[in-house]
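task queued by scheduler; priority normal; single chain, no ligands, no partner chains; default sampling; output format set to C-alpha cells
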Amino acid sequence: MAGVYISYPFCQQKCSFCNFASNVAPWQTREQYHKALTAEIGSHVWQWLPETVYFGGGTPSLMPPSLFTQIMAEIPPERLSEITLECAPGTLTKEAVRSWRQRGVNRISLGVQSFVANELRTTSRRHTADTVLQDVQLLRDQGIDNINLDLIAGLPEQTARSWEGSLDWIERLQPPHVSLYIFEQDEDSRLGKELLLGGVRYGASRMPSEDLVADLYEGAVARLAQLGIERYEISNFSRVGFESLHNLKYWKLVPYIGFGLDAHSFDGVRRWNNPDSLAHYLSSPPGRMESVTIDPSEEHFYVGLRLMQGIEPTEAEWTRFAQPIARWIEAGLLEHDGSRLRLSSAGVLLSNEIFQEFV
C-alpha cells in the first residue's frame, strides 16, 4: 500500500548542521502555510488508499492540534496502519500526546541526535538527556510504545567515550527503533559553512576524524545488535516488527504522495517535488509539480541496496551492471548470495560511492 508524507517546516530554532527547508517563522507566516497546506491536501484526488502517514519537518510536534485534525480528516482512513509524527525533545505535553493518540498517531520519532550536553550545545539543541527520558516515559504512559530515537555519529566534540554515553542511554531507554546517521558536511548549513571557512563557531574546530566516525558507527551497530536492535537499512535499526513501514516504502519503490514545502512524491513511474522555497510554495497553486521519469533499474540499485536484505536484480540488470557488480564484489563491498545482491558490512560505509556506479 502507498504512503503519505506531510511536511511541517517550522522549528523553535535552526540546528547548526541543518540544511532542510525548515526555519523559525512568525505566526502569521505559519498561518499562511497552514492554509496552503490544507488547500493542497484538499485538492488531491485519491487514486489509492494510503497505509501510512508520516509527519516530518521541521518540528511537526509544534503543529496546532486543529491543523493536525484538519489534515487527518482529509486523508482516507480505511487502511491506515501507521501514523508517525516527528518530535523535538521537550516539545511534548500530556495533552498533545493524548490528542495525537486519539487521532491515530501510533509511532513517534524523537530527534535526539545526542545525549551529551556539550555536543548538543554545538548543534543549537535545547534538550538534555533527562528531557528525552521524560518524553519517552510520557509517550509510554499515553500508550505509544513504537518510539524511534535519532542519533548522529560525527558531531562536533564527539569522542569514543561520549558516544558510548549516548549508547548507554539507548540501552537504558530501550526504544524499539533507532535511526543512526553519519554526519555529512553540507555547505548550506551554518556548521558546513563554518567548516569550509576554517572557522571555530558551532564546534567546527573540534570535529572527530573520519576514521573515528566510522569506528563510532560500527561500534554502534554491534552494540545495538546486542540489545536486539538489528540494522535493516543503512541508517535504521529496529527490533523485529518495529521497522518503519512508511520509510520502507521509499526503499522498496512503493508509491507515496507528499504535501507541503519541499515534499517529494513518487507514483511508481515518475518523481516530483514541491518548491523548497517557502515564498514559492505559498504563491504556487496546489497540485502536481514538474515531474521526472525514473529509470527502474537505476532506482532498484540506488534505493534498494540501502536495505540489508539487498535486492534481487533481474536478468537484464545482472547483464547491464555486470562490470560494477563484479568490481565491488571483488573489492569485498558487495555480496552475492544466490539471486540476491547486498552491501557487505564494509560496503555500508562506502555506500554512496557504490551507488554512483548504478546511476
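post-processing summary
- The two ends are 27 Å apart (CA to CA).
- Residues 295-359 form a domain with the Arc Repressor Mutant, subunit A fold (CATH 1.10.10).
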